[in-house]
Design brief:
By secondary structure, this protein is of the alpha/beta class. It has two domains: 146 residues, Nucleotidyltransferase, domain 5; 189 residues, ATPase, nucleotide binding domain (Nucleotidyltransferase, domain 5, 2-Layer Sandwich). It is built from 15 helices and 14 strands. The strands form two sheets. An eight-stranded mixed beta sheet has the order 5-4-3-2-1-6-8-7, sandwiched between helices. Strands 11-10-9-12-14-13 form a six-stranded mixed beta sheet, sandwiched between helices. A hairpin with a 3-residue loop joins strand 9 and strand 10. The radius of gyration is 22 Å and the shape is globular.
Length: 399
């Protein structure tokens, strides 16, 4: 069975075609700058890579057509006919409280996606465009959706409710939803499999650290709390997002400093985090390089970043009454040894100790980086959201 996995943004389409017989990636690529003057398209397969610039890609329907044409290309394609694709699995962002698992795309699901646009105005409309584009190009193909928010629907009310007037939740559904759920679910399952344990017997803290970042407390296989909230802005500081701040700062910026609401929103989402504190970059690799050259602002930025992570880990240890596994994933979590060391340092009181030599291992496999006498397993686990989407899509098709 072959599954096409799509991640549709407002001006982009990221794709992978996965052979579920052995979970191998047959082809992958990216369409960028849709509806702009010049689009960039990348297509890769095991034997071929093509990059095209200055293309005219008017909309998502055109982007999907280009992808399918290359997948079926007689010279470098990987399928003979569009019917070789058993189903399309979409990464979808926000399902509100409607869905806690992957779903087959129906008219009802499309209505729910539309309803949740108010909660994800940048992402859900793009997801809808992607689904409609596939429906035009492949009308007979099953489409499934895997939501970023779904995994966190198991959180209890005490974790997801904000201490605001209750009517804001009852009437407007203002609550914590959480994101990166597909990644948190995937890496926690892989960790349990790696350790030879039943996930229902484990307390796991998953640290998804990339340009976007979130931490989740997973107890007995379900999410019981997570750092992102109503939007992906809450929680950890990130590449350009502020994460947790005193909400009165927003009032101060508007009333006392004269910023507009749109300007404040732009500051919090695009000018804060690593970029804002370092005054250098939102890329942790550039910050790490600057630290090696003695840049004090870069050093301070990393220290703040680590401090925020440690606070969440400590909080989640408390709410779960302990932890069995702390795992790092995402571009930063998987690749930055010094960050993992700084996070775990001074956690020996909780029984968490790092094997510094194993921590330096750089590969794409799961690595146990905990010391022999560590009471807590510390793992580096590569995430694979596309494969998780394909797995859940296949389960829906099979059922």
């Amino acid at each position: 069975m072959k599954i096409l996995v799509l991640n549709c943004g407002s001006s982009s389409i990221k794709f992978q075609l996965i052979n579920m017989n052995d979970q191998s990636v047959l082809s992958e690529g990216l369409v960028e700058r849709i509806a702009e003057k010049s689009a960039l398209y990348t297509y890769k397969s095991t034997a071929f890579t093509v990059k095209k610039k200055e293309m005219q890609i008017a909309d998502h329907k055109k982007g999907i057509k280009i992808i399918l044409d290359d997948l079926m290309n007689k010279e470098y394609g990987v399928i003979a006919d569009v019917k070789d694709i058993a189903a399309v699995g979409h990464r979808l962002v926000h399902a509100g409280e409607f869905y806690s698992d992957a779903v087959k795309i129906t008219d009802d699901v499309m209505e729910k996606l539309q309803e949740c646009c108010v909660l994800a105005p940048l992402h859900n409309p793009a997801n809808i465009m992607g689904i409609e584009a596939v429906k035009t190009a492949m009308p007979d193909t099953i489409q499934c959706g895997v939501f970023d928010t779904a995994f966190h629907q198991t959180m209890p009310a005490k974790a997801y409710l904000y201490p605001l007037p209750l009517e804001f939740y009852n009437k407007n559904k203002i609550r914590r939803y959480g994101f990166h759920g597909t990644s948190h679910k995937y890496v926690s399952l892989k960790a349990a499999e790696f350790l030879g344990k039943d996930i229902k017997d484990l307390k796991i803290i998953t640290c998804h650290l990339g340009n976007g970042a979130s931490i989740t407390a997973i107890k007995n296989g379900i999410s019981v709390d997570t750092s992102m909230g109503l939007t992906p802005l809450e929680g950890l500081m990130m590449g350009t997002r502020s994460g947790d701040i005193d909400p009165a700062i927003i009032v101060h910026l508007i009333k006392q400093m004269g910023y507009t609401i749109d300007e404040v929103n732009n500051i919090l989402n695009k000018k804060s985090g690593l970029l804002g504190l370092s005054e250098l970059s939102n890329d942790m690799r550039e910050i790490e390089d600057a630290i090696s050259k003695g840049d004090t602002k870069a050093t301070q930025t990393l220290e703040v970043y680590v401090y925020k992570i440690k606070k969440y880990i400590g909080a989640y240890m408390a709410i779960m009454n302990g932890v069995d596994v702390i795992l790092f994933t995402g571009g930063i979590g998987e690749n930055m040894a010094v960050l993992r060391k700084m996070v775990i340092d001074e956690m020996d009181y909780f029984g968490a100790k790092l094997n510094e030599e194993k921590n330096k291992i750089f590969n794409s496999e799961i690595v146990d980086i905990s010391a022999e006498d560590s009471k807590v397993k510390i793992l580096k686990v590569p995430t694979n959201e596309e494969l998780m989407i394909a797995i859940e899509t296949k389960e829906l098709v099979d059922s």
